[in-house]
């Protein structure tokens, strides 16, 4: 009984090599259509995906009105206009001066908010500044090395960082929660809700230089890698979105199983490649195994981002059926959380395993279809 399970597992892994090497993109579309046809009726109606406006470059200035969601990245990013939808911004130096009619998720080395955010704000960076002219009409979640709040927050606010300052012009309409090594609350600041300040433990000296570390994340090379991953993510959505989201919907019911399959794929595939390389006849297949093992490692976090976005949509935290929006938001969340010291590497590893588990279950489903 045990030997049969081992044989079946190795057969699935071997079969993935044939799938990747023999199936062309038009067959991938055909596979998607076949699975969609087997889905029980009635099938949910999904609106046609609309890409957000995407802007990227070393210096990115958004000055013309944006009538949809906005995705912007660069070394220096400035948004000085009206954005009708949500905005997702990342860069070494970020300035938000305009009016955003949706949510704002932003990360960078130095991030300054001086405009209006009609909904919620999630912000992370080495230096975070919410200027006195800024107005946030929802909640605020902020993390960074140095955080300064001088503007108006018409909702609850939670901050975590090395140092936190609330100036005399600041107004917080809800509760204020601060987790920081040092905090300075001006007596003239207005806090209508409860105030909870928690003293953080002193970090080691070598872990203090967060601004330089965060800023270095957006060097030209790292920015290129980040944008290339977004491009690959868009291609994945274009080719496999309906099938992957169907698989994600079923996998989210038992996420631990996906993590387990991901760990199996992570460990077994290198050993399988080594065994194939030892034999003369199996050398080409061993090389292919190594190639697709690396490809799986690269795609795993992107696929996990799709899963995170889908999970947020299911819980109505993203009120948009756009596949592109869901996936980009999910990946951006993993990307931002990956900066958190100590916790970040754990989050990345979990995302890696979960993505590998989804890839393995996809391969397993293809193997089952072929077997039938």
Plain-language structure description:
Helices cover 47% and strands 27% of the residues. The two termini are 22 Å apart. The relative contact order is 0.11. Mean pLDDT is 76; it is low at 1-46 and 205-218. It is an alpha/beta fold and 372 residues long. The longest helix has 32 residues, at 220-251. It has eight helices and 16 strands. The strands form two sheets. Strands 1-2-4-6-8-10-12-14-16 form a nine-stranded parallel β-sheet, covered by helices on one side. It has a seven-stranded parallel β-sheet with strand order 3-5-7-9-11-13-15, with no helix packed on it. It folds into two domains: 2-45 and 220-371, no CATH class; 53-216, no CATH class.
| Number of E strands | 16
Can you write the helix and strand succession as a string?
A: HHEEEEEEEEEEEEEEEEHHHHHH
Morphology: elongated
User: Which structural class best describes the helix and strand composition?
Assistant: alpha/beta
> What strand line-up does the widest sheet have?
1-2-4-6-8-10-12-14-16
Strand residue percentage: 25-35%
Radius of gyration: 23 Å
Termini distance? Answer: 22 Å
Counted by DSSP, the helix tally is 8
Name the average pLDDT.
76
Biggest sheet: strands, sense, closure? 9 strands, parallel
| Total individual domains | 2
Helix content: 40-55%
Unreliable segments of 5+ consecutive residues? 1-46, 205-218
